[in-house]
Amino acid sequence: MTRNTSLTHLALQKFKKNIWGVLSFWYVVACLLIGVFAYLLSPDDSENANNMALSIHSKSPGFTTKVIELPSPNQDQQSWFSKSFFGDKTANTIIPIQSYKEQGDKLYYLEYGMEESALENEIDVSQIDFEGDITNLVTTKTYWLGTDKYGRDLLSRMLIGIRISFSVGFISVLISLVLGIFLGSISGYYGGKIDAVVMWLINVTWSIPTLLLVIAITLALGKGFWQVFIAVGLTMWVEVARVVRGQVMSVKSSQYVTAARALGFKNQRIITKHILPNIMAPVIVISAANFAAAILIESGLSFLGIGAQPPTPSWGAMIKDHYSYIILGKAYLAIIPGLGIMSLVMAFMLVGNALRDALDVKN
After folding, report:
1. Could you tell me where this protein is found in the cell (predicted)?
2. Which end of the chain is more exposed for a tag (fewer CB within 10 A), N or C?
3. DSSP 91
4. Are 264 and 344 contained in the same domain?
5. Is residue 42 in some structural domain?
6. Residue 275 phi/psi, 5° resolution?
7. Are residue 139 and residue 171 in the same domain, yes or no?
8. Are residues 11 and 148 both part of a single domain?
């Protein structure tokens, strides 16, 4: 027990010395917290940040305008917890305006981009449930990252999109670990025909291009949020299985395994209690790399239109919607989600590299 504690302590000390690994780790933690509390942090707290205003589409970062915010009549039907973590399903209606004036119970306004006074619209505020003066309905709204082609707040879409990336990464890695550790451990421990069957399955899966296999599984399961998780996870278990198989084969003849057999322990207990805890270091490292790979695969699927479906905010889908804007002088619409993908993937890779160095007992 003392030896395990000291090895863990040494690994932690080595990890702390890797400045890029530490910074990347805290960046990943920050992104995770932002993803969990995305709706509390995003300016647009509507479900999927899907509050559209087409009159202000494709505006540059820092764009500011006056808006009329009309409260929804069904706001009390959703709990605070549901609004905070799943978005407001009855969000306020946003109307960007050029100018406005009030006359009695009427609020007259000119929509954003309109110049002719003859195009004025009116709202009968006596039919609206709100507190205070009529002018309380008019606020100034700033879009810090601009708006997309549908007039949605890009910052809010980016913040909520973090959830998709982390969800895909976490669930896909979990599926790959369950399958990979199970098949790899029985293949390496028992050998013989079991090993031959598992290796045949690994080689067949390995021979198919990952993206092509994911597309095939996604089309078989159907388009959707959870289907992407399963499809990505079912293609990533091969690497885990190969690593676990090799590690099990290298330690199954060790003295502590021989001693466990001599004591009459069952094979299942030897594998789960004695072998797997001693070979988890490389599995942890490969899981970090798989997490990054899962984010990239999901982004690619969403870009192709078979990943997370609209209006769910996915960084890959955001690039797909706006890549044509690069030649229209509004490249930021595609670059911003691209930078989000790049930074998160790089952070996971740097954490994986730092873990590999820290868990390497030979150094």
Report:
1. Cell membrane
2. N
3. P
4. yes
5. no
6. -85, -55
7. no
8. no
C-alpha 288: how far from chain center: 14
Residue 118 CA: distances (Å) to CA of 105, 110, 114: 20, 9, 10
Handedness of CA 328, 332, 333, 339 (dihedral sign): positive
d(CA 5, CA 17): 19
User: Domain holding 208: CATH number?
Assistant: 1.10.3720.10
Structural domain tally of the chain? Answer: 2
Residue 110 host element (H or E) = strand 106-111
Rounded average pLDDT over 322-347:
92
Kindly tell me the burial class for residue 1, based on how many C-beta atoms sit within 10 Å of its own C-beta (0-12, 13-18, 19 or more): exposed
Beta bridge partners of residue 124, listed in sequence order: 106
Closest CA to 288 of 350, 243, 348: 348
Last residue of a domain, one of 118, 152, 186: 152
Residues 233 and 331 in one domain: yes
Instruction: Reduce the DSSP state of residue 157 to 3 states and report it.
Output: helix
Cα radius of gyration (the chain): 27
pLDDT in tens, 168-196: 889 999 999 999 999 999 999 998 899 99
- Is residue 125 in a domain? yes
Domain boundaries, position 328:
2-33+155-358
225-251 vs 280-304: helix crossing angle, rounded to 10: 160
